[in-house]
Amino acid sequence: MKKRSKRYKSLLNSKMKEKKLKANEVIDLIKKNSNSKFDESIDISLRINIKQSKGGDFSLRTVVKLPNGSGKKEKIAVLCDPDKIEEAKKSGADIVGSDDLIEKVASGKINFTKLICTPSMMGKVGKHGKILGPKGLMPNPKLGTVSNDITKAVNDLKTGLVEIRNDKDGNLASTIGRKSFSADKLLENFNYFIESIKKEKPDTIKGELIKNIFLTSTMGISYKIGAK
């Protein structure tokens, strides 16, 4: 039988399975129980209704700009024409390149977590979709990662723009901050995130879009939200 640590057993005692907790109550519990030495992320998981009355299953892919940021540190690369290299460097990007960056991508040397591309370079980067796609790094105009406004695109990613995408079963997950955030900031991010998802509901889906909501921390247990 697998042994459980004292910390894990202590967390289980605070789960309160039968009680329907509000978001602010769950956030308070998570912050109280996040007692690891590092700044744990506070993560949200949703189960959404993807069954449409007409057509195939609904697929949600969008971005949400959290009002207080996500606290996640992104390593951003910018792929642009040579005449925009200087602008990209001043934007705060971690890696900047043109054809040289394309060569690194082609060889599998990917040491960044987000890739921003100018429209003029999409023709070149598109050839490497099989490398970037599985890693979730393929630039996409709808996700704010294809833009001529490099400074804005970098700033958005640095200050809390998070990508949302559901799997085939209707599950999606994201972060809404860190345990070092105040409870008020986490609650504001939570409410904004939920309202943003609700706005994506198509007319072809009957009933509520969001079925279940759970919150947890990196090293914590999951709590179900009963009401906002």
Compact summary:
The protein is α/β, with parallel strands linked by helices and 228 residues long.
Write the layout of secondary structure elements.
Layout: H1 6-12, E1 21-22, H2 23-33, E2 41-48, E3 61-65, E4 76-79, H3 85-90, E5 95-97, H4 99-106, E6 114-117, H5 122-125, H6 129-132, H7 150-158, E7 161-165, E8 171-178, H8 183-198, E9 210-217, E10 223-227
Helix pairs in contact: 2-8
Q: How many helices does DSSP assign? A: 8
* Poorly predicted tracts of residues: none
Instruction: Indicate how many domains the architecture comprises.
Output: 2
- Strand residues, percent: 15-25%
* Major sheet characteristics: 5 strands, mixed
Assigned CATH architecture of the largest domain: 2-Layer Sandwich
Order of helices and strands: HEHEEEHEHEHHHEEHEE
Q: How many β-strands, per DSSP?
A: 10
Oligomeric composition of the shown chains:
single chain
Model description:
The protein has a 5-stranded mixed beta sheet with strand order 1-10-9-2-8, covered by helices on one side. It is of the alpha/beta class and 228 residues long. Helix 2 crosses helix 8. The longest helix has 16 residues, at 183-198. It is 29% helix and 23% strand. Helix 3 links the parallel strand 4 and strand 5 (95-97).
